[in-house]
Amino acid sequence: MSRKWPEFPVLELLVGVDDHGSLSAAARLAGMAQPNASRAIKQLERQFGMTLLQRSPTGSILTPQGTVIAHWARRVLSDACRLLDVAEGLRAERSAELTVGASMTVAEHLMPGWLGQFRRLHSDVTIHLQVHNSTQVFERINNRICDVGFVESPTVPRPLKSLTVARDRLVVVVHPTHPWARRRKALSVSELALTPLLVREPGSGTRTTLDVALQEYERAAPLLELGSAAAIRTSVLAGVGPAVMSTLAVAEQVAAGELKVIDVDGLELDRVLRAVWRGARQLDGPAGELVRLVRRVGAEN
């Protein structure tokens, strides 16, 4: 059976009569004209089927039934105030600052688009982006410096939680004048392992992925260790040497013919990009909203 709920303003009037002893005082404090207040009380009386106010030439006071209803109206209004406080608290939580950690590759090539879309949907959230290698992102998540991180490392340390949000692939790239660029036969994994390469510093996701892929082979010492994909790309473009890089980092240069991708027989360097965080299994709040958006974007691409 459906019920018609009383309006909050008329309940406030009833409580006001209980507090201040007259309908005129209650209407004045509620910012309502007295004739409107009187009509609202009469409508409530018809709805409840009882007299709530005892009217007289000198004013109006609550009847015994009105006193009981006013008592319960006070509790309803108190709970409604709590509901508004909770809603305000949730709004403030959504407006809280969100600190995001991202590894270099993700920060350079994916994060601007992700955060741009997130800002359009959640303009009330202030975002701080910290860019580090994957190991440093893990440390900042573990120390609760960042709310959520995005990395391309093949493993995630405990007790951090993780979720796959996108996929990526590493490729061997050289300058078009490099001897490998003229090969008709694919490079072997052992040849790659024995070649000094331009590599990222230990702790980066790209370096870790490469080290894991070549861990069973004899390795040459790195040609150079550099702290960003941009620095490695610039070095390869300058003809310094070969490198293993994300397709995200070299797509434009490969398309323009400025870099050449070298096939390596039997080497698979596909990898997943993960969101990482510490705490509950289900990430909520602005950080959870960001992860869900990133997954949707990844599914669409």
Written account of the structure:
The protein has 301 residues and is an alpha/beta fold. It has 2 domains: 8-93, Arc Repressor Mutant, subunit A; 98-300, D-Maltodextrin-Binding Protein, domain 2 (3-Layer(aba) Sandwich), CATH 3.40.190. The protein has helices at residues 8-20, 23-30, 34-48, 64-94, 104-109, 111-121, 134-142, 189-193, 205-213, 229-237, 247-255, 285-300; strands spanning 53-56, 59-62, 98-102, 127-131, 148-151, 161-174, 187-188, 198-200, 224-226, 243-246, 260-262, 264-265, 270-277. The strands form 4 sheets. Strands 3, 4, 5, 6, 10, 11 and 13 form a 7-stranded mixed β-sheet that branches. A two-stranded antiparallel sheet has the order 1-2. Helix 1 (8-20) packs across helix 2 (23-30). The two termini are 50 Å apart. 31% of the residues are buried. The model has no long low-confidence stretch (mean pLDDT 88).
Write a concise keyword list for the protein shown above.
301 residues, alpha/beta, D-Maltodextrin-Binding Protein, domain 2, 2 domains, 7-stranded mixed β-sheet, 12 helices, 13 strands
